[in-house]
Design goal:
This protein has 12 helices and no strands. With 298 residues, it is mainly α. The chain folds into 2 domains: 31 residues, no CATH class; 220 residues, no CATH class. The N and C termini lie far apart (55 Å).
Length: 298
């Protein structure tokens, strides 16, 4: 099938949205918004409120362009909030992985294939890590390469410092279940290594969405989160949580941050943010009714 849709001018974009039932309080301001936020990008925010089985995609209820912009702004604030949380978690996990294995196996343990489950995966992942190291502009990488020749790869506290969170999660999952892995999982108040492996994978995917300015508020996450069945620390009592909605991941982020940074304000800031969630979209994010009354969030 040939794609032959023409480009649409901003005034015509507004006319099209109006014909579908979207209201405008200030069309001049709407022109300014559409000049800086593309019509196609905003389509991800209008989509849930339209009848998308109808060829003209009419809006199903009374809603304004300003409502859509409010939701867009909320989603941006929400992404920044989540990205801040994942940054803390990523740095902590990276630190613990480097420390636990370096103390037992030395500075270049990540190159030792005997520590890993799947040797083919290890070869592939180390190759990816070497590429990330070679692309790094960090001064400490350049210093190592200029001063040392053997081994050619920098020590773990340098190499893994510049690796992506996604690659770090793959390397961690491929590590054998020894004392180091058990100690690391225990450090985060968990009893099942598969839970932490799942969280790392899920958080790295969410981080990529945030870093690339993707829609997060009502996204169906592809990396479903797993909830711990018997964690050492306080967790949500309501286990009837949708694993592909962002609320489930937020619960796991808070669990980790409570360990990493006792006395943090994650729960307070999330409540404040959700009070400003437009168009009653809490349910679309997976938030259960009265979620903030759970002891976990108090």
């Amino acid at each position: 099938m040939l794609y032959n849709k023409p480009a649409v001018s901003i005034p015509d974009q507004i006319l099209k949205l109006k014909s579908r039932g979207l209201r405008f309080k200030d069309e001049a301001k709407a022109v300014s918004y559409l000049s800086n936020i593309s019509y196609y990008r905003l389509r991800a925010y209008t989509f849930p409120f339209q009848d998308n089985n109808h060829p003209n995609h009419p809006f199903k209820s009374a809603i304004s362009f300003e409502d859509i912009i409010s939701l867009y702004v909320f989603d941006r604030q929400f992404r920044l909030f989540v990205l801040d949380a994942i940054e803390k978690i990523e740095i902590s996990i990276r630190t613990q992985i480097v420390y636990q294995w370096a103390m037992s196996h030395g500075s270049h343990w990540y190159l030792d294939p005997t520590l890993f489950i799947d040797l083919n995966r290890h070869t592939t992942e180390i190759s990816r890590l070497q590429q990330e190291v070679s692309r790094s502009a960090e001064t400490f990488i350049a210093h190592y390469k200029s001063k040392y020749t053997t081994p050619p790869e920098p020590p773990c506290w340098m190499s893994l410092e510049v690796s992506s969170f996604g690659l770090l999660s793959l390397l961690f999952k491929n590590l054998k279940l020894g004392n180091e892995k058990k100690m690391l999982v225990s450090y985060y108040g968990l009893k099942d290594v598969r839970i932490l492996e799942n969280w790392m994978h899920s958080f790295s995917n969410i981080r990529n969405i945030c870093a690339h300015h993707g829609r997060l508020w009502n996204r169906r996450l592809t990396a479903h989160i797993k909830l711990p069945t018997n964690p050492k620390n306080l967790f949500i009592r309501n286990n009837n949580i949708i694993p592909y909605k962002i609320y489930a991941s937020l619960c796991c982020m808070k669990y980790m941050i409570d360990i990493i940074s006792p006395g943090n304000t994650f729960h307070i800031r999330l409540k404040e943010l959700m009070r400003n969630c437009p168009l009653a979209q809490e349910k679309e994010m997976g938030f259960p009714t009265n979620w903030e009354q759970d002891a976990f969030w108090l």
